[in-house]
Structure formats: C-alpha cells, structure tokens
Amino acid sequence: MYQTGLQQLIMRSVIFQQIISALFACLASITTIDFIPYNLPSVVKKSSSIVSLGSQLLPSKFSSNNTVPSSPSISSVTSILIHGEQDNSDGGLNPASRILATIISYKTCTLIFELLSTLCLASVASGYDVVINILSEVKGEQYRFERLVQNIQRLYETYYDQQDNISDDHALLIFDCLTAALSLFNNIVRKPDVIEKRDSLRMELERRGFEELVTRLEAEKESLPESLQKQVSLYHRDKKVDQDKISALQNAKRQSLLQL
C-alpha cells in the first residue's frame, strides 16, 4: 500500500514542482520575517503537523467563545498567512499572525526537506531520480543546487548574526530546518553506488558553497543540537571514506602501470 502510494506520487511531477515552489517561497520568507522574541507554545515542539499548528495558533477571528477550532479550513489558514489579521488600532498585522506565518514557514521547509530526503532512500527506484531531476530544473538557477544552498546559507546566517536576539524555540526551528536540509544533501550524495558519481555530486555541491556551510557548522559544533551535529559528522565521514577509496584506487592503477 505504501509503495503503491509512493509510486503514484512520484509519477506526478506537477506535485513536486509545486512542492519545490513552496519550499523556496518559505525559505525566502523565513530569512526576512520578524524574529520570534519569546518562547513558543508547547504544540510547536510536539507536532510537525501544519494543520495542528494552525488549529492551536490561529488568531481568535477563527474561533468562537475564545476557543480554537480543532481543524481550521485550508482557506482560513491561507488567508491569515497571506493577509494577516489586522490590528484594530493601527491597521498593522497582528503579532500572532506574524508568529503563525513564521512557524508554518519553518515547519513547511523542514517537512519538505524530510520528504525529499526520504524519497532519495526509498526502495522505489525512481524516487532518487525524481528528486535529482526536480532539483535540476529549478527556475532562475545558473547552476544546479545554487539557489537551494544559498538559501540554506542565509538561514544559518540568520541564526549566527542574530543568535543573541532570538528565543531558544526560534533557534530550534532553525536547527530543525538545517538538520533536514543537510540530511537531504547527505542522502543525495551517498545514494549512488558508484564512488565516482558520489564524488562528482559532492564536488558539485562544494562549488555551490556547501562545503563552506558545513565548515562553519563544524566550527560551532558544540552549540548545535545532536541531530545537526550528526549530519555534519556524516558529511565529513562519508567524504573521507570516499577520498580514501579513490586514493587507494589511484595508487593501485599507478602500481599496475609501473609493473608493465
């Protein structure tokens, strides 16, 4: 049942195009929107469901008798994300609306990264190819992975430059998103069986600036959550293993030539 549903999803490329569009839209928003200055409600830590977040955090205009509806409509969530709730005093956006938009943007990015990462390792053979193909057709890119790596770098810089001004829970949202993003890139690189293919993908990502990002994360490793540390270490470990294998193969070839 799972495999059938996954295969049907993979066959619908238009869905992935919409998913990638949503990913870039959310990545753009979370590097420009207001910081969350205080700790978030516990529901944010316990659930990754966007619908559940909306049901717990939507402003009072979507509730009656000051109680929050258990399942707000998609149109209601979309409306508040796009237009916000106006403050009666000055016509500005209600802070709760901005916080909701921030949380959902982070959660959406994290969920999409996790989805793509899972597809890379799925037993359905075409899952990996679909992810690679869709990331190879991103509009506005001169080189593959360029925009994605740049947005992830900006996301880290958002934390690094403002870490003294943001709450612990906001930092956790950033770390979760970074962890999911690094997991995706690690799976993109490590999935191919051919070592030359892995090395080629790794070098391609490094030309886009991914190595610089991982190096910066490595320098801050002690302050990172364990899940993000694991992804940083996995990248370096896989790279060293492949480099050692490539070096051994090259040495073996040179020895063979010398014996001729």
State the shape.
Answer: globular
The helix/strand series, from N terminus to C terminus, equals HHHHHHHHHHHH
Oligomer type: single chain
In this structure, how is the largest beta sheet organized?
none
User: What class would the helix/strand composition place it in?
Assistant: mainly alpha
Q: What Rg, in angstroms, do the CA atoms define?
A: 21 Å
Count of β-strands: 0
How large is the share of residues in beta strands?
under 5%
Count of alpha and pi helical runs: 12
Distance between the termini: 57 Å
pLDDT < 50 stretches: 42-86
> What percent of residues adopt helix (DSSP H or I)?
over 70%
Report mean pLDDT, rounded to a whole number: 77
Protein model, in words:
The protein is 70% helix and 0% strand. It has twelve helices and no strands. It is mainly alpha-helical and 260 residues long. Helix 2 (13-30) runs parallel beside helix 8 (146-162), helix 4 (50-57) packs antiparallel against helix 6 (95-121) and helix 9 packs parallel to helix 12 (226-258).
